[in-house]
């Protein structure tokens, strides 16, 4: 009853505010005035998802607001018993619509992203499609098990910091919004000098409860981006957020009507709220559990309570070290003046290297530190040489797994709070902050991290892990030479793998938790479209977890050599997409191309006038020659459907010999962003030489010469681009 009447009152309040602002702007600017949130292809995402109505102008907003009005219920008479949750849920949805319009109006007024009137902090504001896609892969591979929206403020700064740190350690992405008693959690964290931002999984949205809508907008977009749910299919969208977006709210402090109303909106999406005031759990099943507050449980247990209520699966492994640990600390930066000691980074010789051994050659858990007075030299701070040499053994271990395990050394170290790591092999760079040192972090702890995490990440294949740290320059240089020989052999092996030379491809089904009908088919010459999984990664992943997200695909008979079609792949893809797809061609964009989930690094699409293709990477915000920005292009390729002429790809696929093999290959590229050109320059030039056009990179247009097709064609003609004289793509 409190919920219903509070939510109904709150809905009216938000609705009236939105209406007032909207009418003011219609009077000033006219109803045809166009509005867009920054970098999204989903208009006002909540309204778009729920109704299918693409709000583009102020008049459209008026229409959408009328839809919200239909959901409003008369304000409840005091003491009247409201028997069911329906009214609260309707009011909740109406509130979300009205909040979306209210925030849009604030954008018009230049008030968003909000600037904190007390601290001057600029909040995140609307969450763009680009950020959504950047995070996509972490959502599906288990690195980020859920999301929390903290609304309000904790009773004191220390409690605020503690709650957030606990969420961070569990890799839960935290959104901050709202206020209680004039205080906000964002300011509390700022006073405690807690780092804020996407890199550390703590994102301040704004100071009002209404700002929570940005997080809900983000959640509902996942249904359309990854789930292939059509805008307007509100049941589909709400079911998707309930089943697949593991979010919950932690409203801290007393609840007011707008909090009730927004909370009721979130319940529609399947998100429970766990409060610290006297209604501790609001559950989306429609039943409200009015639990008595157990004072003990309050803030120390609120996070674990939320995890239990929302049913999150948290697997966290923490090495026995004196600092906080988890992926949320990967993004932190350590500035020079905060550094206690550093290794590598061109300051000292350094490297990191994993090698497999026979079981009887090493001793599990053994840590060897070699070097004169290494303890004293570490305690003195500054810089020091460091070779990190990890030896592993296991019955299921194969040398092919070494590079994958070695790449994880970076994450292993970087996840320590106050530890920063960059690069790999012999171009690594490691910093330990003064704060981590003050917590008691030692050189030995680096080895402990590698021991624990190598075990935990690769438990199915590794039985023993031994770590040696070299700290004398001469030793580091000498052992680094040995490592370099091994790296060279490994690279040659990877480079010599071709699609023809293997019998098995691998699938990646990780994104099916978000995009149920998408399967990545990963071959030696085509990596996953997110860029994070190549054939060897998948092979290792299958070895590590045979029932996991990477499964072998028996190639079978070749059906089409040029287009890349095999009997075994067709059978697999049909089964794994629940019959959504019958067949797939790996080497063409024109006919039954591979589908996309939503986390592609790049989008490639045909530019018909130029008889070629263009490639644009995620994060590029400018216009492209086909008249669409990345964000709107992305809207056409996701959701696991085949769209001939459009395809999501990983960056490194561009320089594969199988890239567009059936369509004429690399020479089809007519436009590519400058950043992309830079990123793959060396490999690209090598491939261009093979194709007989050594200066080909210069013949490809980018955003500095053309952002429309007319300029593009002019440029292509001026450089004699090969695509112009190739056979027609159609
Ligand atoms: Fe998703 Fe494909 Fe990347 Fe796997 S390889 S995580 S399915 S995009
Ligand atoms: Ni770190
Ligand atoms: Ni994906």
CATH fold node name of the largest domain: Rossmann fold
Going across the biggest sheet, name each strand in turn. Answer: 3-2-1-4
Percent of residues in helices comes to 25-40%
Largest sheet: 4 strands, parallel
CATH class of the largest domain: Alpha Beta
**What does the average pLDDT come to?**
90
Strand content: 5-15%
Shape type: globular
Number of domain modules: 3
Based on secondary structure, the structural category is alpha/beta
The small-molecule ligands in this entry are: iron/sulfur cluster, nickel (II) ion
N-to-C span: 63 Å
Return residue spans where pLDDT drops below 50 for at least 5 consecutive residues: 79-83, 286-297
How many runs of DSSP E, i.e. beta strands?
24
For the record, the CATH architecture of the largest domain stands as: 3-Layer(aba) Sandwich
Computed over alpha carbons, the radius of gyration is 27 Å
Number of helices: 22
Explain what this protein looks like in three dimensions.
- The structure is a single chain.
- This protein is an alpha/beta fold.
- The chain folds into 3 domains: 2-310, Rossmann fold (3-Layer(aba) Sandwich), CATH 3.40.50.2030; 332-496, Bifunctional carbon monoxide dehydrogenase/acetyl-coa synthase(codh/acs), Chain M, domain 3 (2-Layer Sandwich); 504-725, Bifunctional carbon monoxide dehydrogenase/acetyl-coa synthase(codh/acs), Chain M, domain 5 (3-Layer(aba) Sandwich).
- The chain has a 4-stranded parallel beta sheet, sandwiched between helices. A 4-stranded mixed beta sheet has the order 11-8-14-13. Strands 9-12-15-10 form a 4-stranded mixed beta sheet, with helices on both faces.
- A hairpin with a 6-residue loop joins strand 13 (419-422) and strand 14.
- Helix 6 (157-169) packs across helix 7 (185-191) and helix 6 packs parallel to helix 11 (298-310).
- It is globular.
- Residues 79-83 and 286-297 have low confidence and may be disordered.
């Amino acid at each position: 009853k409190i919920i219903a009447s509070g939510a109904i009152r709150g809905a009216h309040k938000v609705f009236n505010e939105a209406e007032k602002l909207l009418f003011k702007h219609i009077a000033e600017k006219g109803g045809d005035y166009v509005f867009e949130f920054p970098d999204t292809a989903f208009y006002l995402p909540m309204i778009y998802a729920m109704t299918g109505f693409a709000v583009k102008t102020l008049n459209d907003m008026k229409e959408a607001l009328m839809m919200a009005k239909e959901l409003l219920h008369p304000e409840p008479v005091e003491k009247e018993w409201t028997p069911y949750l329906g009214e609260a849920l309707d009011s909740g949805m109406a509130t979300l619509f009205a909040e979306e319009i209210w925030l849009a109006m604030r954008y018009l007024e230049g008030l968003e992203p909000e600037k904190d009137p007390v601290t001057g902090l600029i909040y995140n504001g609307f969450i763009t499609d680009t950020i959504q896609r950047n995070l996509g892969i972490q959502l599906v591979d288990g690195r980020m098990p859920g999301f929390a929206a903290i609304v309000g403020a904790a009773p004191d700064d220390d409690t605020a910091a503690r709650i957030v740190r606990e969420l961070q350690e569990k890799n839960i992405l935290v959104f901050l919004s709202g206020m209680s008693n004039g205080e906000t959690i964002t300011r509390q964290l700022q006073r405690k000098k807690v780092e804020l931002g996407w890199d550390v999984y703590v994102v301040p949205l704004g100071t009002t409860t209404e700002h929570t809508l940005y997080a809900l907008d983000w959640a509902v977009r996942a249904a359309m981006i990854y789930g292939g749910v059509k805008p307007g299919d509100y049941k589909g969208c709400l079911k998707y957020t309930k089943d697949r977006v593991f979010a919950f709210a932690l409203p801290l402090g007393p609840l007011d009507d707008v909090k009730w109303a927004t909370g009721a909106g979130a319940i529609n999406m399947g998100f429970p709220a766990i409060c610290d005031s006297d209604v501790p759990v609001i559950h989306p099943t429609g039943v409200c559990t009015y639990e008595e507050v157990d004072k003990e449980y309050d803030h120390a247990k609120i996070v674990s309570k939320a995890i239990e209520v929302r049913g999150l699966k948290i697997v966290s492994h923490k090495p026995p070290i004196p600092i906080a640990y988890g992926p949320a600390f990967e993004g932190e930066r350590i500035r020079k003046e905060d550094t206690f000691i550093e290794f590598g980074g061109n300051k000292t010789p350094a490297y990191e290297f994993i090698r497999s051994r026979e079981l009887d050659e090493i001793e599990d858990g053994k840590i060897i530190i070699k070097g004169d007075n290494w303890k004293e030299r570490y305690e003195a701070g500054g810089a020091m040489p460091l070779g990190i040499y990890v030896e592993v053994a296991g019955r299921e271990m194969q040398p092919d797994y070494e590079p994958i395990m070695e790449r994880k050394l970076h994450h292993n170290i970087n996840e320590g709070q106050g530890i920063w790591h960059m690069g790999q092999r012999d171009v690594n760079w490691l910093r330990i902050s003064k704060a981590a040192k003050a917590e008691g972090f030692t050189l030995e702890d680096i080895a402990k991290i590698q021991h624990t995490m190598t075990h935990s990440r690769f438990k199915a294949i590794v039985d023993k892990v031994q770590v040696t740290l070299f700290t004398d320059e001469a030793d580091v240089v000498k052992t680094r030479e040995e490592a370099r020989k091994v790296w060279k052999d490994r690279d040659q092996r990877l480079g010599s793998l071709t699609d023809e030379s293997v019998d098995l491809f691998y699938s990646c089904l990780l994104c099916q938790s978000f995009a149920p009908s998408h399967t990545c088919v990963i071959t030696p010459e085509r990596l996953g479209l997110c860029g994070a999984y190549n054939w060897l990664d998948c092979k290792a992943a299958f070895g590590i977890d045979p029932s996991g997200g990477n499964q072998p695909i028996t190639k079978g008979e070749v059906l089409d050599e040029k287009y890349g079609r095999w009997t075994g792949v067709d059978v697999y893809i049909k089964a794994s997409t629940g019959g959504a797809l019958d067949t797939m061609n790996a080497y063409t964009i024109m006919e039954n191309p591979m589908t996309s989930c939503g986390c592609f690094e790049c989008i490639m699409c045909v530019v018909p006038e130029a008889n070629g293709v263009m490639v644009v990477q995620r994060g590029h915000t400018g216009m492209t020659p086909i008249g669409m920005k990345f964000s709107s292009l992305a809207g056409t390729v996701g959701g696991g459907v085949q769209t001939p002429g459009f395809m999501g790809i990983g960056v490194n696929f561009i320089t594969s010999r199988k890239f567009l093999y059936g369509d004429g290959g690399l020479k089809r590229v007519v436009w590519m962003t400058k950043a992309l050109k830079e990123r793959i320059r060396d490999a690209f030039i090598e491939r261009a030489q093979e194709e007989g056009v050594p200066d080909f990179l210069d013949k490809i247009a980018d955003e500095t010469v053309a952002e429309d097709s007319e300029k593009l064609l002019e440029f292509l003609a001026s450089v004699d681009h090969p695509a112009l004289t190739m056979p027609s793509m159609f």
